[in-house]
Write a structure and sequence with these properties.
The structure is a homodimer. By secondary structure, chain A is an alpha/beta fold. Chain A has one domain: TIM Barrel. Chain A is 29% helix and 23% strand. Chain A has six helices and nine strands; from the N terminus they run βββαβαββαβαβαβα. Chain A has helices spanning 57-67, 88-96, 135-145, 159-171, 192-208, 220-225, and strands spanning 2-12, 22-28, 53-55, 74-78, 100-105, 119-122, 149-156, 177-181, 214-216. The first copy, chain A, has a nine-stranded mixed sheet. In chain A, helix 2 (88-96) links the parallel strand 4 and strand 5. In chain A, helix 1 packs across helix 2. The longest helix of chain A is centred in the last third of the chain and has 17 residues, at 192-208. The first copy, chain A, starts with a strand and ends in a 6-residue tail after the last helix. At the A-B interface, strand 1, helix 5, strand 9 and helix 6 of A face strand 1, helix 5, strand 9 and helix 6 of B.
Chain lengths: 231, 231
């Protein structure tokens, strides 16, 4: 059985390599991390666990199917940390019906079924998160993902994060890298001026360093929907 | 010799498949079209032609090289319509030094050197532009681009445009399609609320039609820089 925080969509992916792509989100409940600036605490903090549902993979897929009107769509597995649960059955059921699967995870937990994904976004957490980066586990995630389309997405809150991203960038030069300004304003109507300033600063820093193979993208969904849940 | 409107960067690409990617823009002067909502009239309207420069391909490349500090970067050829000039020499010089080239053009004019590009964005103009779509010429552009990474980007101003995009989508199902709300506010400080509303409406329309392989992206540079030139 799977622990699910929310299933919603269709909407568009708001960040990273697949930005702008129509998708249904399956957000699992539970996380092995507790990042200082987590923007999905409702899927992380155990105090919300009464809101989480226990569902079979078949039930989850049926809900996805209903949301997409039975038409195959990209399913984005997110969390919390979706890698802490065995999602292989869900992926298997969906792929048999032509659905594609992307997953967003920090790389702290991995499993052989990563190879079944169509796209894997690894988002290792930088120092500002106050979480520890375990490179062995991260490498195991990469290894498990095998030939899956992989991209690296790093949230940047400050200069230390940026230097840290630079180190990772040198260690994994072949992974497409996306840097994303950290959403520090988690109230319902965040200041878009602040998000814009953060993005512009990040663009400047990246260009100043000559990181011309590194993309910078803000969270588009924050521009479009603020911090509203379920969109 | 090449007619150039502006060369600027490094900045990030603000739209389409390469959104967020660091790049230097080479904007050529002159266009065979005159779209009703053109947002780069300074590179299109002949009344601005005294601002355009006549430069050799070598001079253009040297300016790009200076802007990027001699470090290879993606060069985005835009306009006006860059396809109305022979850019093969510029691409050849740049590629010899490791630079990559993307081009944005409507597909009304094509040339064999399209095959030298690393990425081609074809942005055929919808009915609201008041321009005529010539499918034979469009197909010749596709043919010339050969194995180049091609994507389709269509600006959407109204429902007629959307229906038109739907027809093109069925005719070219294998081309990745990006829909972009039309920037109708060309003053220096456009209303971001309006841009957001337009984007949300476009997202709704795309999802309602079940176009799950069609991406929707606003012009990120308008969020970041308004309608400022040269960024």
């Amino acid at each position: 059985m799977l622990i699910i925080s929310e299933i919603f969509g269709p909407t568009i992916q708001g960040e990273g390599a697949l930005i702008g792509t129509p998708t249904v989100f399956v957000r699992t409940g539970g996380c092995d991390f507790r990042c200082s600036w987590c923007d999905t605490l409702h899927a992380v903090d155990k105090k919300y666990k009464d809101d989480w549902l226990t569902m079979s993979a078949q039930d989850v897929f049926e809900q996805v199917e209903q949301l997409s009107g039975g038409k195959p769509i990209l399913v984005t597995l997110s969390g919390g940390n979706p890698a802490t649960q065995d999602l292989s059955e869900l992926i298997k059921i969906g792929k048999a019906k032509g659905y594609r699967f992307a997953m967003e995870t920090q790389g702290s937990v991995s499993a052989p079924w990563f190879a079944m994904l169509d796209h894997l976004t690894l988002s290792p957490k930088p120092p500002s998160s106050k979480m520890r980066f375990d490179q062995v586990r991260f490498d195991t995630s990469l290894h498990n993902a095998n030939n899956t389309n992989i991209s690296l997405k790093i949230v940047i809150a400050d200069h230390t994060d940026l230097e840290w991203a630079g180190e990772l960038k040198s260690q994994y030069p072949k992974l497409p890298l996306y840097l994303q300004p950290c959403n520090l304003e988690l109230k319902n109507t965040p200041s878009l001026e602040k998000l814009t300033t953060q993005t512009l600063n990040l663009v400047d820093e990246v260009l100043k360093r000559g990181w011309f193979d590194t993309s910078v993208l803000p969270q588009l969904h924050v521009y479009l929907w603020g911090n509203e849940k379920g969109v």
